[in-house]
Design brief:
The chain is α+β, with helices and mostly antiparallel strands and about 120 residues long. Helices cover about 20% and strands about 40% of the residues. The chain has an eight-stranded mixed β-sheet, covered by helices on one side.
């Protein structure tokens, strides 16, 4: 099965400006989502492309790496244990995305922030 990259996110101080830049440059479809976080969902288009998001984090920077990749896993808890055992650090244990799935955030030994993703069962 493997563990493919399934989503990415750009951290931004001005999501509207960054969204406009990428939409104009690549023709990406970008939609602002409702809710307390300034978040925009990005459809990159094309076959086999990876979609993502642009957001303004709720806390001030610096944001490690300023970009996240989300990696699909079948068991968030098991992978969090593997991350810690391999020298990484967990920053978000588990958080639900209503109707979509759950994620956890971690940093690798050099401080790059990454995400784990478990899609909701269909």
């Amino acid at each position: 099965m493997g563990n493919p990259v399934v989503h990415w996110e750009l951290m931004s101080k001005d999501p509207a400006k960054v969204s406009d830049f990428y939409a104009k440059l690549f023709g990406w479809k970008i939609q602002k989502m409702g809710g307390p976080v300034d978040y925009r969902l990005v459809e990159t288009g094309g076959e086999g492309g990876i979609n993502g998001g642009i957001l303004k984090p709720e806390r001030e920077g610096p944001w490690p790496g300023n970009m996240l990749f989300y990696i699909a896993v079948d068991d968030l808890a098991a992978y969090r244990k593997k991350i810690v055992a391999a020298g990484g650090k967990i920053h978000v244990e588990e958080q639900k995305v209503p109707g979509m799935g759950k994620f956890s955030l971690f940093t690798d030994p050099e401080g790059r922030m990454m995400g784990l993703w478990k899609a909701k069962m269909k």
